[in-house]
Specification:
The protein has 14 helices and 16 strands. It has helices spanning 18-26, 50-54, 70-73, 75-91, 116-125, 151-171, 235-238, 242-245, 251-254, 262-272, 274-277, 287-303, 345-371, 417-428, and strands at residues 2-7, 10-14, 30-31, 40-44, 62-64, 110-112, 132-136, 146-148, 181-185, 192-193, 196-209, 212-223, 259-260, 313-323, 329-335, 385-389. Strands 1, 2, 3, 4, 5, 10, 11, 12, 13, 14, 15 and 16 form a twelve-stranded mixed beta sheet that branches. A four-stranded antiparallel beta sheet has the order 6-9-7-8, with helices on both faces.
């Protein structure tokens, strides 16, 4: 957790993340250690706590992580939002110019195991030798994931649910839903890089929620340590994240080979796949990037009406994509509080740049909102790409924001004198941290 506070124009900071720490120090903010203090200006909240949001002062403070970002970042939350979006899309008169994709075009077939009807539908469907992957709804780093690789494994899981239901009936206790999990059709023929499975981490920055201002940033490629084998029981063959790869005995020797820059990836695709697959030059930075942005924006629009909105909330989400052997792009998941470690040489360049520009944009937009200035253009916009910006006129931003005092309804709170001093300090502090 990192917290910054201001008193008489001076700032203090409580932090644990190296890149965030360096950024704040270069802006002249100082470190504090008292977690109970509520008079901070910026709080980097890795673990969400209800009390943090209860005491948040809208329009006066900045707070990392939207409180209910799980509607986008939990497996079930995202699945429900996309299903509802598709239901509305199918029942309304579809605009022929609509850019919305069907779920089947980018999201693997999925079932909720905590709902009996969906669970039974999955068990009725899953009678062949196809592989399915089972994921907890709210975990990350590969925790709790397992594969269902044959009908016997599916039957074992089905029997486990049946025994649990019988036990509850025999004890005559209140029904308790199983752990929130989803099961997804596993992409068995992924595109491989030098024989290894990989996925692509990109970023969605929600720099402001009132109004919504969203940005996209390229990230990096994550590869496994060993060659891909669909039949392998080793999860480090199937899951590419660094937390899982560290469990492989070869990781210490190969860790710098498990992360590629996007430029390296683009060159590899140009060299190995462009002619055989009939791809356009720089497919990674053209077709693939455009598809990632389209999918990320569609997911946000599906959840937009559910997210909590207060001036000062911001979020950085990690978005993971897989490409199959036919170059179809699949969204695997969206992650809250993505890893910001820099244990590989490539990450030492990428992660600080992502953090610095994210905070630059958040601060500039927050400052402009307080003053009632138009958000665009942005002086600090460099590597990120504007993905979505609500219409200024619709939100009445021609005049400085007048904040209301009802926190419980998500309305704005009237800024105190400190808000003006905060804006002044943000404006006068260095524009770039390094």
């Amino acid at each position: 957790m990192m917290r910054t506070e201001h008193r008489g124009g001076s700032f203090s900071v409580l932090f644990s993340l190296c890149s965030v720490s360096i950024y704040c120090q270069r802006r002249g903010w100082q470190r504090i250690y008292d977690n109970t203090r509520e008079d901070y200006a910026l709080k980097w909240c890795e673990i969400k706590c209800q009390e943090t949001y209860y005491h948040f002062k809208e329009g006066e403070q900045l707070l990392y992580q939207i409180p209910n970002n799980g509607v986008l970042t939990s497996k079930i939350g995202l699945l429900c939002c996309l299903r509802e979006q598709e239901r509305v899309m199918n029942t309304s008169s579809r605009n022929p110019n609509s850019k919305l994709l069907k779920m089947e075009e980018f999201f693997p077939e999925s079932f909720r195991l905590d709902l009996k009807n969906e669970r039974n539908a999955f068990f009725a469907l899953c009678k062949d030798e196809q592989i399915w992957i089972c994921k907890p709804s709210c975990s990350n780093q590969g925790r709790g994931i397992f594969l269902l690789k044959n009908p016997a494994a599916v039957n074992t899981l089905q029997a486990k649910f049946h025994r649990a239901e019988e036990y509850l009936l025999s004890k005559r206790v209140l029904y308790r839903a199983p752990q929130a999990r989803i099961v997804q059709r596993y992409i068995q023929q992924p595109l491989l890089l030098e024989g290894k499975k990989f996925d692509v981490r990109s970023y969605l920055l929600i720099a402001c929620t009132a109004p919504y201002v969203l940005f996209f940033a390229q990230g990096y490629v994550r590869l496994t340590c060993v060659n891909y084998d669909a039949a392998s029981d080793d999860l480090t063959v199937h899951l590419t994240n660094q937390y899982m790869q560290k469990k492989n005995s070869l990781y210490s020797q190969l860790k710098d080979e498990t992360i590629w820059r996007m430029e390296h990836f683009n060159s590899y695709v140009n060299e190995k796949f462009r002619k055989p697959k009939g791809l356009p030059k720089d497919w990674v930075f053209t077709v693939f990037t455009k598809r990632m942005k389209q999918i990320i924006l569609q997911c946000f629009l599906a959840a937009k009406h559910k997210l909590d909105r207060k001036l000062g909330y911001f979020d950085l989400l990690g978005c993971d994509f897989l490409i199959d052997e036919n170059f179809k792009v699949w969204l695997l998941e969206m992650n809250a509080n993505p890893a910001l470690h820099t244990n590989c040489e490539v990450l030492k360049d990428i992660i600080p740049a992502i953090v610095y520009e994210s905070l630059d944009l958040v601060l500039e937009i927050f400052n402009k909102c307080l003053k009632g200035h138009r958000i665009l253009p942005l002086e600090t916009l460099c590597h990120f790409v504007l993905l979505y910006h609500e219409d200024d006129a619709d939100l009445g931003q021609k005049q400085p924001l007048k904040l209301q005092s009802d926190l419980h309804k998500g309305q704005y709170m009237r800024p105190h004198t400190d808000s003006a001093s905060l804006a002044k300090v943000l404006e006068n502090s260095p524009k770039k941290p390094g």
